Amino acid sequence: MTRWSGYWRWLRDGGLHRVWVRRGRCAACRSTHALLPDLVHERRLDSVDVIGGALARAVDGTGMRRLAAAMDVPSSTARD
């Protein structure tokens, strides 16, 4: 795996931030892969900490609308 540029990606973690995602290229198959940092979840705007906190509240019986209001996100985002 060799370095192959990267790209900027938005991340919501209390605020909206941009993070640099490195890309790597496989020498054998010549395809590229995104190398995500630990705090970023694949195909999600929210960080892993935000998602984990929401799951912990949902286990306690908090409804999706209340959960979304506490996180300051649309209810469809909290549901997904």
Describe this structure in words.
This protein has 80 residues and is an alpha+beta fold. It has one domain. The protein contains three helices and three strands, in the order E-E-E-H-H-H. Strands 1-2-3 form a three-stranded antiparallel β-sheet, with no helix packed on it. Strand 2 and strand 3 form a beta hairpin. The mean pLDDT is 85.
Ranges where pLDDT stays below 50 over 5 or more residues in a row are none
Kindly name the structural category.
alpha+beta
Radius of gyration: 16 Å
Largest sheet: 3 strands, antiparallel
Order of helices and strands: EEEHHH
Principal-axes geometry comes out as elongated
Strand content: 25-35%
Counting structural domains, the number is 1
- Kindly state the mean pLDDT as a whole number? 85
Number of strands: 3
Oligomer: single chain
Helix run count: 3
Biggest sheet: strand arrangement: 1-2-3
Fraction of helical residues: 25-40%
N-end to C-end Cα span = 33 Å
